[in-house]
Structure formats: structure tokens, C-alpha cells
């Protein structure tokens, strides 16, 4: 299976299809090229993203996936689309059951705990909540319905309480990953109890002693991972929808198996397949099972969440991100340049609303397969123009540039004045009160410094940090933000 790099992007058709006559183009893994995005329903886009298997707390790779699709969602919204975004939760799986057995805990307690950790991981990095976030175990009736249909039409069979998908019965199998069935070995990690062909995959697994199980017409058992997504996508988005997403590791077998089940069931299923590349460590996928993962909860102790978002969200979604502290430091200083500009203009001109439209060059970059790196270059250019205007005391131009910068940063989820980042969405009316109080304390610190009482000044700073604030000293004064 090959996954073309960004530079191999190919051309596209000519039919403008979106509301404003400008086409969004996306790399479709299935077509192996960039395609014009033609929505199923004009003005609407439906997206299904494979979400977390809640066996452990999220590492930054997991959240990168959520973040890439958050930016996609924001861009569609900016273009005026009505977005329906589904991100599921896989709350039953071998690893969850193994962990529960090892720790002597109920299986669901592992799932609930980690689901909360995922929710706060998405939230701390500013991902908008999905429209619906269905859990696998809440959809057993829908899975039974799908299995019934597939058994009836001859694409699935029951063997020793398991329900298997007959891969040879579905001619389109392996088209997404561009593989030949003849070259495929047995499905990985599966015991072939009663399989007709070792490559058949389990949709439903027969009950084992001590494991949770649900009643079905074919005996008790539990869902397989692939069936969950087919059943939930069908329930929330119908038989056909626009975009299916996930990390590149899911192309095979997970997405191939979803396609086989859903199409054999009679669904047209996803019209575009979009896959994000990984966060890697020494070239390998960051992964819980490989033990090379860095948790989001650890990272936000060391880095401001907005800097972490800049680091994870600004490389192209199809480029790998090799984890590096140096790159994080670079992200920190690049973001500081943007943030410094925003704050300088606000200090000079007061509140500035985001522009309704982003500059054309930014839009062109985003329309071209979500070209965030090129779009970000437009942000930096606009910041430079704004800074020159400030130096020339041209307030009007500086304000106009800030309005554009805010609009662009809003699409990337990086606008420092957004209530999510100012903390206003966590205590709306309290934000102003806290700001006045902190300013008061900062003034006391400043007067301690002026009288060269550095001990008191440092003690005040330490107390503010302890209270959960981040204090940054700049040539124009001290600024504060809430720590994640
Ligand atoms: N290192 C990574 N970089 C980018 N995306 C990732 C990474 N690891 C997982 N993902 C994506 O995150 C989403 C949720 O993944 P899931 O919970 O199934 O974890 P997983 O792939 O089993 O992780 P792990 O390998 O750490 O156990 C999927 O879309 C997956 O492709
Ligand atoms: Zn899935």
C-alpha cells in the first residue's frame, strides 16, 4: 500500500461547486489523487471520523488526527457549509478487556475514564465538539440489523457463534489500499474459528468466559471494531455521506472492512476518503502499544496548549510530524510573533473584530487540499505588514491587518483573542473581573521592581504562576494567560 506525499498531488477538474463558486479540493485516498469536492447536498457536508479506542489516555498523535479534521471542519464552516461531524468512541475492544482483567476493574470503567481524558485532550487543544459522538456499545441493535442483512444476502456467515464477512464475495475488496486479495495473508490478530477463508474478518465475536456480551439471533457475543463504524456511520449519516476520515494506519484493514460491510449491505457509503499522517518518534508511529507515546496531559504541563496546537495543526495533514522539542520551540517563537502583533494592535486600538472573509491567498491555499503551511505563510506575511504599519504609526492599516489575521487564525483555531484561549468561555463574565485583579497585582509587581525590590516582585510572580497563570514580560508590559 502506498501513501503519496504531498508533493505528488495531481491536478483537478474544472467544475466549481461550492456556494461561492470556489471549489474545495481534497486528496481522496481511494482515487489516489486530489479531487474537486462535490457535496452530496449543496451547502452541506457530512464527515465521519474514526475516533478513539478508549483503552488509555490520548497521546499527541491521537489528538493530531482530531485536530486535522477540526481544521477541515472549520474551513468548511468558513466557506458557509452546514457541517455534520461524527467522531465515534470505540468503548469495547480486546485491549480494553485485557486491561480490565489485569487491573481487576469493570471493563466499562476503563472506557469511561479514558473517554473523559480524550474529551479534555480535544478540548484543551481547542477542537470543536463533534455534532454527535456515538459509543459503539450503544449501537448493538444497529449492528445486528446490518449483520442480518449481510447474512441474508450471502456476504456474511455464522461459525461457532462468530459472524464473519466473506471477503471473496465482495469484488471491490482492497481497492482503497490498492492491494490484491491473492497477496493477502490471514486477518491479523484473529483466531480463525470456523472461517471459510483465513482472510475473512470478524464482524462479531462469540462470547468468551468473563467477557461482556450481548444477545443476538446467533448467540451471545460482542462487536468487532469494523462493524461498529459501518453501523454508526449508517445511523447518523445515512447510506451515503461525503467524507470518511482517520489516520493512515486505518486504511487497511479497518477502512477496507468498513467499505466491504457497508457496500455489501447496500450502502453507497463514503464519497471521499481523507487520511491524516502520523506523529512519529524516530520514524515510527507514536503508539501506546509501542511505548513511544507522549500524553497530551504531560505536554500541556510543559507547553502552552495554543503552542501545542500550532505545532500539531500547522504541518500539512498528509506530512508526518517527527516529534521534536526543537520544532516545538520553533512553533513557540513563531506563534509568539503572531501573538505579539495581535496584542500590540489591541493595546493601541482596542478591540478589533475578525474580518468576515480571509485574504484570497489564504483561501486558495486552504481550498487546495487544506494547504495549511501555505495558508500560514499568508498569516505571517500579513503580520509583517501589520508590524510595519505599527512602526509607521499607521493605526488604520494595522487594524485592517489584524482583522484579517484574526479571520485566518480563526480557521486554524489559533486566534489568541478567541474566548476559548482567553479563558472567557470558562467563566464568561468573570474574565473581565479576573483581568482587573491580575492587572492590579501586576502593577504591584511593577512598583516593587521600580524600587528594586526584586524579592517581592519574584514572589508575586510565583504566586500568580501557582494560581494557574502564565506571565509573560514584554517591552510594553506584562501579559497574562491561563495555563491549560
Ligand atoms: N501517532 C499517530 N499520529 C496520528 N494519528 C494517529 C496516531 N496514532 C493514532 N492515530 C489516529 O487516532 C485515531 C484514534 O486512534 P485509536 O484510538 O484507534 O488508536 P491506535 O491507532 O490504536 O493508537 P495506538 O497505536 O497508540 O494504540 C485514529 O484515526 C488513528 O489513526
Ligand atoms: Zn472506524
Automatic annotation (TrEMBL):
The keyword Protein biosynthesis applies. One of its GO terms (cellular component) is cytosol. Keywords: Aminoacyl-tRNA synthetase, ATP-binding, Cytoplasm, Ligase, Metal-binding, Nucleotide-binding, Protein biosynthesis, Zinc. Its main location: cytoplasm. A motif ('HIGH' region) lies at residues 52-62. Its cofactor is Zn(2+). It holds the Pfam family CysS_C. This is Cysteine--tRNA ligase. Gene3D superfamilies: Cysteine-tRNA ligase, C-terminal anti-codon recognition domain, HUPs. It is found in: Cytoplasm. Monomer. One of its GO terms (biological process) is cysteinyl-tRNA aminoacylation. InterPro entries: Cys-tRNA-ligase, Cys-tRNA-synt_Ia_DALR, Cys-tRNA/MSH_ligase, CysS_C, Rossmann-like_a/b/a_fold, tRNA-synt_1_cat_dom, tRNAsynth_Ia_anticodon-bd. One of its GO terms (molecular function) is cysteine-tRNA ligase activity. It is an enzyme of class 6 (ligase). It comes from the Bacteria. Residues 361-423 form the Cysteinyl-tRNA synthetase class Ia DALR domain. Zn(2+) binds at residues 50, 229, 254, 258. A motif ('KMSKS' region) lies at residues 285-289. It catalyses: tRNA(Cys) + L-cysteine + ATP = L-cysteinyl-tRNA(Cys) + AMP + diphosphate. Belongs to the class-I aminoacyl-tRNA synthetase family. Coiled coil: none annotated. Binds 1 zinc ion per subunit. ATP binds at residue 288. Its EC number is 6.1.1.16.
Amino acid at each position: 500500500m502506498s501513501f503519496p506525499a504531498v508533493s505528488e498531488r495531481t491536478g483537478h477538474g474544472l467544475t466549481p461547486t461550492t456556494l461561492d463558486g470556489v471549489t474545495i479540493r481534497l486528496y481522496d485516498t481511494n482515487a489516489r489523487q486530489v479531487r474537486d469536492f462535490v457535496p452530496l447536498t449543496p451547502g452541506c457536508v457530512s464527515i465521519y471520523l474514526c475516533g478513539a479506542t478508549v483503552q488509555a489516555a490520548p497521546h499527541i498523535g491521537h489528538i493530531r488526527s482530531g485536530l486535522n479534521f477540526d481544521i477541515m471542519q472549520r474551513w468548511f464552516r468558513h466557506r458557509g457549509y452546514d457541517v455534520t461531524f461524527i467522531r465515534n468512541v470505540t468503548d469495547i475492544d480486546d485491549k480494553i478487556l485485557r486491561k480490565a482483567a489485569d487491573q481487576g476493574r469493570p471493563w466499562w470503567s476503563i472506557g469511561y475514564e479514558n473517554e473523559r481524558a480524550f474529551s479534555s485532550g480535544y478540548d484543551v487543544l481547542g477542537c470543536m465538539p463533534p455534532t454527535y459522538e456515538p459509543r459503539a456499545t450503544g449501537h448493538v441493535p444497529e449492528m445486528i440489523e446490518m449483520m442480518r442483512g449481510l447474512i441474508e444476502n450471502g456476504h456474511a456467515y455464522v461459525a461457532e457463534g462468530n459472524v464473519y464477512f466473506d471477503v471473496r464475495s465482495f469484488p471491490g475488496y482492497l481497492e482503497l489500499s490498492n492491494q490484491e486479495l491473492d497477496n493477502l495473508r490471514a486477518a491479523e490478530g484473529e483466531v480463525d474459528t470456523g472461517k471459510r477463508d483465513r482472510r475473512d474478518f470478524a464482524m462479531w465475536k462469540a462470547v468468551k468466559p468473563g467477557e461482556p456480551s450481548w444477545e443476538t439471533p446467533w448467540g451471545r457475543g460482542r462487536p468487532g471494531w469494523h462493524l461498529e463504524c459501518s453501523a454508526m456511520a449508517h445511523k447518523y449519516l445515512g447510506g451515503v455521506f461525503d467524507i470518511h476520515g482517520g489516520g493512515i494506519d486505518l486504511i487497511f484493514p479497518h477502512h477496507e472492512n468498513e467499505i466491504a460491510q457497508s457496500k455489501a449491505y447496500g450502502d453507497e457509503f463514503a464519497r471521499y476518503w481523507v487520511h491524516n499522517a502520523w506523529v512519529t518518534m524516530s520514524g515510527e508511529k507514536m503508539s501506546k502499544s509501542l511505548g513511544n507515546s507522549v500524553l497530551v496531559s504531560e505536554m500541556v504541563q510543559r507547553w502552552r496548549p495554543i503552542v501545542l496546537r500550532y505545532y500539531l495543526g500547522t504541518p500539512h495533514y498528509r506530512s508526518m510530524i517527527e516529534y521534536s522539542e526543537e520544532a516545538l520551540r520553533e512553533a513557540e517563537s513563531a506563534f509568539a510573533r503572531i501573538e505579539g502583533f495581535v496584542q500590540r494592535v489591541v493595546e493601541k486600538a482596542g478591540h478589533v473584530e475578525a474580518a468576515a472573509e480571509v485574504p484570497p491567498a489564504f483561501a486558495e491555499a486552504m481550498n487546495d487540499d487544506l494547504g495549511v503551511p501555505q495558508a500560514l505563510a499568508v498569516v505571517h506575511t500579513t503580520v509583517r505588514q501589520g508590524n510595519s504599519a505599527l512602526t509607521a504609526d499607521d493605526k488604520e492599516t494595522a487594524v485592517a491587518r489584524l482583522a484579517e489575521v484574526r479571520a485566518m487564525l480563526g480557521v486554524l483555531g489559533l486566534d489568541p483573542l478567541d474566548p476559548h484561549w482567553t479563558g472567557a468561555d470558562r467563566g464568561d463574565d468573570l474574565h473581565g473581573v479576573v483581568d482587573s485583579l491580575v492587572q492590579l497585582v501586576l502593577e504591584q509587581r511593577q512598583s516593587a521592581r521600580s524600587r528594586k525590590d526584586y524579592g517581592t516582585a519574584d514572589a508575586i510572580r510565583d504566586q500568580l504562576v501557582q494560581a494557574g497563570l502564565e506571565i509573560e514580560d514584554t517591552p510594553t508590559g506584562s501579559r497574562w494567560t491561563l495555563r491549560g
